[in-house]
User: What shape does this take?
Amino acid sequence: MKVFEEPFSVMRNHFHVSASCGICIYPDHASSIEEMMKSSDVAMYHAKKVGKNTHIMFRQEMNDEFTERIEMENGLRRAIENDEFILYYQPQVDLATDSIVSFEALLRWVHHENGIIPPLKFISVAEETGLIVQIGKWVLKTACEFIVNLNRRYGKEYGISVNISVIQLMQADFVSTVVDTLTNTGLAPSLLELEITESKLVETVDINLKKLHELREIGVRFSIDDFGKGFSSLSYLKQLPVSTLKIDKCFVDDIPDNDHSMIESIIHIGHKRNLVVVAEGVEKKEQLEYLAKHKCDMVQGYYCSKPVPEEEIKEML
Ligand code: C2E
Ligand code: MG
Ligand code: MG
Assistant: This one.
């Protein structure tokens, strides 16, 4: 690790490379060469997880975590093969007209033994393994088909919001995947909004900005999800071609009892930049009234409706 502190020189450029080390000791941590490789690998995985550039000694309990992760990964592969994913949809309500204008698609995994698994339990493993790319394509296609059918059935122009992982955005074929999905499903680009979490978007803005612009040019909208929650600078708001800010639930939770001046400021910033402002996680009537009074454009939350399966959306409408 000492050696790696020095930069490598390649064609007069200096590169800093960090090293993550996993250590295990024979015979305490393993009884064969194969097992030693595995145990040190498990320890190395931990070293990477705690922020890289460090070394970690193997401990037995690391194995359980590792096994759990492997099981999750295998489970996800099976789930893709067996079509175990479904989408729930949550209405987004326009406060000026008091009516549903769009829906957010939210992923669920229907596990054969454990029932419905929420996304926060598996998205990170899907991202680490790259499986999110395949899952994300399915989500995009299914959500677009859903809204095209709904609009046809009711003669409306409801929009659809789809959560996109930055891993998907990083793929070289991201733009063509979205364009192809729009073409194949016949959805108007302006009815599709891609939601990207604030912190992740800001970290990768240099690499992804061109793709965002390409899609924005054909009419696809972008929203910054969980706005205000990450540690990010406001300067990127000027360069990103976003249409919508989604105020994180933690700010909405402060209404009515705690200091909620932040919300007013976020709505103000959003409107100054011509953005649609959506409040997430609205659970109470007082919150909705407060947001309407302060000219928030849209709300989403259990107060209006929980995310529900497709059939329930039809009943609701
Ligand atoms: P998100 O995009 O910020 O979605 C909002 C989350 O808040 C959803 O959780 C929703 O069910 C929940 N929610 C909505 N209204 C309320 C409310 O009034 N109260 C409370 N307590 N919760 C509310 P969910 O469905 O578990 O999704 C969690 C996160 O997982 C999402 O956060 C999103 O970041 C991610 N996710 C969901 N579906 C996908 C997907 O298809 N692809 C990717 N990459 N990420 C997804
Ligand atoms: Mg979202
Ligand atoms: Mg959110």
Remarks:
- The first helix runs from residue 33 to 49.
- Residues 225-226, 246, 280 surround magnesium ion (ligand 3) (CB under 6 Å).
- The first strand starts at residue 8 and ends at 10.
- The chain has two domains: 3-58, 75-316.
